[in-house]
Design brief:
Layout (H helix, E strand, L loop, with lengths): L5 E7 L2 E8 L4 E8 L4 E5 L5 H11 L2 E6 L5 H4 L2 H8 L2 E5 L11 H6 L10 E3 L4 E4 L3 E7 L8 E5 L4 E5 L2 E2 L2 E2 L9 H11 L7 E4 L5 E2 L16
Parallel strand pairs: 4-5, 5-6, 6-7, 11-14
Antiparallel strand pairs: 1-2, 2-3, 3-4, 8-9, 9-10, 10-11, 12-13, 14-15
Helix pairs in contact: 1-3
Length: about 220
């Protein structure tokens, strides 16, 4: 495990979730797989490719898909490294695909000169991604933080991966290129439609549930992060 990386293992039915917190921006990245199957999905990469590859080897799983919840560099910086090492396909929402070649605040702060990369799959709303024998992740388009921000929902186990759309007691900034505060309000309202018991795994910070975020009912147009 890389220095500064934290790890947590979670079991929900047959679904296994490996959650890693990687520096320098404390990004949450996730490895998803099923008991008894070797297929794995990777949600966001950030600068955690080394930690992800190490854990994938320990788990003896084979990543087939790398999913970017949105195109900001702090979530996508090592997409190419991970794709080259695993041969997994890279997926991002069609409206954020252009960001994989775009300099942004995070790339400047990290001192990264971005080498353009083309995704293998451009996701669309309500697309279903099958993992292992029974797990299905549904793509939920949640614009606001970026035009093509997405969440991923596993109905079978009531698990929701929210990227930078929803955090514990907060939500993603809406003051950047492609941000839209009105779109964010609509996206957060959409998430309130999920069962209160839904587990929420954000792109930064602690895990939460929809029930714990009932403040969303009073949401306004100002970003809380």
């Amino acid at each position: 495990m890389s220095a500064g990386t934290q790890r947590r293992s979670i079991r929900k039915g047959t679904l296994r979730i490996e959650a890693l917190v990687v520096p320098p921006f404390s990004n949450n990245v996730y490895i998803l797989y099923e008991d008894g199957a070797d297929d794995a999905f990777l949600i966001d990469v950030a600068m955690g490719s080394r930690a992800i590859l190490g854990r994938v080897k320990e788990l003896r799983v084979k990543p087939s898909l790398i999913i970017n919840t949105h195109g900001h560099t702090d979530h996508t910086a090592e997409d190419r490294i991970l794709r080259d090492e695993t041969r997994a396909k890279l997926a991002i929402h069609e409206l954020d695909a252009y960001r994989l070649a775009l300099e942004d605040e995070a790339s400047i702060e990290l001192g990264i000169v971005k080498e353009p990369i083309e995704p293998d799959i451009q996701l669309v709303s309500d697309q279903e991604l099958k993992l292992g024998n029974k797990t299905i992740l549904r793509v939920i388009h949640t614009p606001g933080h970026t035009e093509g921000s997405i969440c991923l929902y596993c109905k079978e186990e009531n698990q929701l991966f929210t990227g930078d759309t929803l955090f514990q007691n907060g939500y993603g900034r809406v003051d950047g290129l492609g941000s839209d505060s009105e779109a964010m309000k609509g996206s957060l309202k959409k998430l309130l439609e999920f069962p209160p018991s839904t587990d929420v795994y954000p792109g930064h910070g602690g895990f939460t549930t929809i029930h714990s975020e009932m403040w969303l009912k009073e949401i306004n147009s100002d970003s809380s992060e």
